[in-house]
């Protein structure tokens, strides 16, 4: 049974027609002890089937160690949205429900090779010279989560030092409990700085700079 409704497929097919550049959907899965790996792979397959510009790659988390290391994938199910290079865009858990919007946004952004940020935001992000890990905890029923996920992904595309992951709190309850996720979206920066809610671009940039060891400031 298809995971994407036919009406949604038709809309998505039209959106993908306008992709100026190829997009890679890179799925990490494993055959055993992964509750939603099959659904994650199927969803990526259905999306990739809608456009010649979208290419699917599937790797076994337990076997394809070189690819796991290359993309620094930490858990499964995982989905990386990339172009000719890795932009640090990750989904941990099936990007269904409201998070399907986040996936479509990521595909469009990567296809355009443009993060779609304000010029001043992009300039400030270029000042970051050390790794920043952005983890956005979500649920598939949260209508506000895609806003935060997409913004995090845009930041990652703007600076190769930044990695941004959408993490389904319900699929990874141990991790969500570790970070005390009681409401979503909840964002964790570099595994210690946390805040809840969907922030506008400028406020999110301020939060990112709080964890960056730099003299740049915000000007």
**Strand count:** 8
Order of helices and strands: HEHEHEEHHEHEHEEH
Largest sheet: 8 strands, mixed
Spatial sequence of strands, sheet with the most strands: 2-1-3-4-6-5-7-8
**Tertiary shape:** globular
Can you tell me the number of structural domains? 1
What share of the residues does DSSP label as strand, in percent?
15-25%
CATH class: Alpha Beta
Instruction: Give the overall average pLDDT.
Output: 94
Helix content: 25-40%
Tally of helical runs = 8
CATH architectural type: 3-Layer(aba) Sandwich
User: From the structure provided, what is the oligomeric state, counting identical versus distinct chains?
Assistant: single chain
The radius of gyration computed from the alpha-carbon positions, rounded to a whole number of angstroms, is 17 Å
Structural class: alpha/beta
In the predicted model, the low-confidence regions spanning at least 5 consecutive residues are: 214-219
Describe it for me?
This protein has 219 residues and is of the alpha/beta class. It has a single domain (6-210), classed as 3-Layer(aba) Sandwich (Glutaredoxin), CATH 3.40.30. Helix content is 37%, strand content 21%. The chain is built from eight helices and eight strands, in the order αβαβαββααβαβαββα. The protein has an eight-stranded mixed beta sheet, sandwiched between helices. A hairpin with a 6-residue loop joins strand 3 and strand 4 (89-92). Helix 4 (99-112) runs parallel beside helix 6. The longest helix has 14 residues, at 99-112. It is globular, with a radius of gyration of 17 Å. The protein starts with 5 loop residues before the first helix and ends in a 9-residue tail after the last helix. Mean pLDDT is 94; it is low at 214-219.
């Amino acid at each position: 049974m298809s995971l994407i409704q036919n009406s949604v497929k038709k809309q998505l097919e039209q959106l993908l027609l306008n992709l100026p550049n190829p997009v890679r959907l890179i799925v990490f899965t494993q055959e055993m002890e992964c509750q939603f790996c099959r659904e994650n792979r199927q969803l990526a397959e259905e999306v990739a089937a809608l456009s010649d510009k979208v290419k699917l790659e599937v790797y076994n988390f337990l076997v394809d160690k070189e690819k796991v290391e290359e993309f620094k994938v930490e858990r499964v199910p995982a989905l990386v949205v990339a172009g000719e290079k890795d932009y640090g865009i990750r989904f941990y858990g099936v990007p269904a429900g409201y998070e399907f919007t986040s996936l479509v946004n990521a595909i469009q952004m990567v296809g355009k090779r443009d993060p779609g940020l304000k010029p001043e935001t992009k300039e400030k992000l270029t000042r970051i010279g050390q790794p920043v890990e952005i983890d956005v905890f979500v649920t598939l029923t949260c209508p506000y989560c895609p806003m935060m996920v997409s913004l995090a992904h845009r930041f990652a595309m703007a600076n190769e030092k930044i990695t941004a992951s959408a993490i389904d709190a319900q699929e990874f309850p141990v991790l969500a409990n570790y970070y005390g996720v009681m409401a979503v979206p909840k964002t964790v920066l570099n595994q210690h700085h946390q805040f809840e809610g969907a922030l506008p671009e400028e406020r999110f940039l301020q939060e990112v700079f709080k964890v960056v060891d730099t003299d740049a400031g915000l000007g």
